[in-house]
Amino acid sequence: MELSDIVVFLKALAHDAGSIMMARRGKVLDIFRKPDRSIVTEVDLAISKMVQERVAAFAPHWGLITEETCQGHCPEQEIGLIVDELDGTHGYVQGRGGFTFQCAFHLGSNLLVAMIHDPLANRYVWAVRGQGVWLEDQGQVQAVQPLQKREWRSLRFANHRHYMTDTLRKMYAMMGVRPDNIIPTGGIGSKVIDFVMGKVDVLVALNRNVKPWDWAPGMLVMEELGYAFSHLTGTPVHLFAEPSVLDFGYIACPKEHWNRFLRELSWITERVVPDHRLLRIFREELIPAGIRGNFSA
């Protein structure tokens, strides 16, 4: 099976997931609480059922990891699909935008194809390992060029429009980020589309847990566009690894600013993992020298 065939399949899957979202948007929904207290709706579950049926028919040998079917740790599959059925569920339930369907095809830990769809804006973003990124906006398709270099003080930061904590305010203030350079965004998939469209340059996320479906599509898109993507400590983000003490928060930014961001944000990671030996090695030896290569291997 060619990667181009997988792109066609994932785009059709994304289209149908978006159709389910839009058909139920604005209506009274059945909403449930998962064990972790996050919410799931009948729409998430309907998309999950559709994905399972379509993948089983298209490639029955594929493994499938989705937000609504994977509980706890998700073991690495040899080959298969990682899916977030409805990223940005809260915004969707509340009638806002910023919700997406996102998925990624992988061989082991190697991401090969990513697809993100914003049905409200009628946009698709997809990436193929080693071949680049494409944006379809209102039916018009274009290849996305690698990011343009931007000076430190001109960087624009993606921040969820309904999530601003005291720690985030302190973080922006300490880095000298102007308020007009903090750009309101939606869910993770929506943030990635904002990167692709050139609206934002940096994302600093302070949450500890990164699930495979949260960032698998975005990681490949970011890599193909030339961004660095890592935990705030500088450690790579592993899709299927059990969380470690160093897996706190993550950053997506232009590679030329990556070392500086890790230094600027050290007060956050030192508070979370103080005096950790691996953290000192990253700070004292690897960060000054600069880490090159695949930031999310």
Counting DSSP H or I runs of 4 or more residues, the number of helices is: 9
Q: What does the largest sheet look like? A: 7 strands, mixed
Give the end-to-end Cα distance, rounded to a whole number of Å: 24 Å
Integer-rounded radius of gyration = 19 Å
Secondary structure class reads alpha+beta
Percentage beta strand: 15-25%
Shape descriptor: globular
**Quaternary state, please?**
single chain
Number of strands: 14
The run of helices and strands is HEEHEEHEEEEEEHEHEHEEHHH
Q: Tell me roughly what share of residues is in helical segments.
A: 25-40%
Low-confidence stretches: 291-297
Mean pLDDT: 85
Q: In which order are the strands of the major sheet placed?
A: 3-4-5-6-7-8-9
Short descriptors:
single chain; 297 residues; 7-stranded mixed beta sheet; 3-stranded antiparallel beta sheet; 9 helices
Furnish the topology, listing elements before pairings.
Elements: H1 3-24, E1 31-33, E2 39-41, H2 42-58, E3 63-66, E4 79-87, H3 89-93, E5 100-107, E6 110-118, E7 123-128, E8 132-137, E9 140-144, E10 157-160, H4 166-174, E11 182-185, H5 188-196, E12 203-205, H6 212-225, E13 227-231, E14 250-254, H7 258-264, H8 266-272, H9 277-289
Parallel strand pairs: 3-4, 10-11
Antiparallel strand pairs: 1-2, 4-5, 5-6, 6-7, 7-8, 8-9, 12-14, 13-14
Helix pairs in contact: 1-2, 5-6
